[in-house]
Amino acid sequence: MKSEGMDIKLVSAALMSASGIYATYSAAGNNGTLEPSGVDKVAQMYRANLEHIQERKKEEILAQQAQAESSD
After folding, report:
1. Cβ atoms of residues 44 and 36 within 8 Å
2. Alpha-carbon span 38 to 32, nearest angstrom
3. What is the DSSP letter of 32?
4. 29-55 confidence digits (pLDDT tens)
5. Which of 13, 25, 18, 23 lies closest to 43 in space, CA to CA?
6. Is 38 exposed, middle or buried (0-12, 13-18, 19+ CB in 10 A)?
7. What is the Cα–Cα distance from 71 to 63, expressed in whole angstroms?
8. 1: closest CA among 14, 17, 11, 18?
9. Using CA atoms, how far apart are residues 38 and 44, in angstroms rounded to an integer?
10. Which of 1, 46, 51 is nearest to 23 (CA)?
11. DSSP code for 49
């Protein structure tokens, strides 16, 4: 999308909005809302997922670096 001239911040905001709407729906139903404790719970889940993603990305980068060094 970036190569097509889309603003990366706009795309990010749209994806986060869609995810937030779905998280609310899955936790509270179509006509419900989240109480502050529910918002905290969802935020903790996002944080844990983001931390997991970052660890996997670091492992992938280290593996690529090790492979590049071994092929030199």
Report:
1. no
2. 11
3. -
4. 888 999 999 999 999 999 999 999 999
5. 23
6. middle
7. 12
8. 11
9. 10
10. 46
11. H
Amino acid at 50: L
Q: What is the pTM of this model?
A: 0.71
Measured in residues, the chain has a length of 72
Task: Give the tokens for residue 58.
Answer: 């670091």
Q: Which residue's structure tokens are 């609310």?
A: 24
Tracing tokens 């706009």 back to the chain, one arrives at 10
Q: Which two tokens stand for residue 23?
A: 């998280």
CA distances for 20 relative to 2, 45, 48, 55, angstroms: 23, 12, 15, 23
Single-letter code of the amino acid located at 39: V
- Rounded CA-CA distance 43/32 in Å is 17
More confident residue, 36 or 6: 36
